[in-house]
Design a protein that fits this description.
single chain, alpha+beta, 60s Ribosomal Protein L30, Chain: A, CofE-like fold, five-stranded mixed sheet, three-stranded antiparallel sheet, 14 strands, 24% strand
Length: 267
Amino acid sequence: MTDLRVLPVEGLPEVTKGMKIGELIAESAELEPDDIVVISQKIVSKAEGQVRRLQDVEPSERAIELAKKLGKEAELVELILSESREVLREDRVLITETHHGFVCANAGIDSSNLPEAGTVCLLPADPDNSARTIRAELRTAIEGQGVGVAGPSPLLSADPHPLSHPAVVISDSFGRAWRLGQAEVAVGCAGLVPLDDWRGREDSSGRELQATVIAIADEVAAAADLVRTKTSNTPAAIVRGLGQYVKAEDGPGAAALHRPPGEDLFR
């Protein structure tokens, strides 16, 4: 049975454009090879310059019309439209499919936990690539640390291609169509098996499973959120004990979790 631990990464500074998040986390946390580092989308977007001032946005006629209908700022609606490939619902809230392939409210644009009034935060342009970049930064930072007071880092190896080193998940809060409340999901990941396909295996009674596919990346994202509340200024956490899902290769990323449109019964 898996012994699972979730540890907050404390002491991170306010992240601004250009900062290397992997380096910051490596300096603030003691990592083990099979850890999964879960990072709030918000600080990734900040580091990548994905913050916009509403006063700099010129709304289109469509944005103005939708803003009146929904009681939103036209500038915000314009950003939502620009970040979306398709608007799926425009009743009370805008549900869109983003250019990444996420189906979510307001294209994932958020105004919470931003130091400057009148600004909003967009999702990273390519969250899986962001996760791969942060994972590489973690590895480089750990290698640069070399030997510490406790001896060689357990993440270092004479083998230039170790079996594994910390995986990275970038998480964000999404609503659920079938349930109340929000939960964290993975919008990007690297070094982690995002889905565990149990189809074809037998259950405890010997019956063959037909439809069971476990969303490992989403479950890791949700677990990490339990130790970093919205007001705690703790934008990262370590999930430890799931080494069977951590791989040396970066893997397919969270894009593997997208439901193909042809299988979406709610469109």
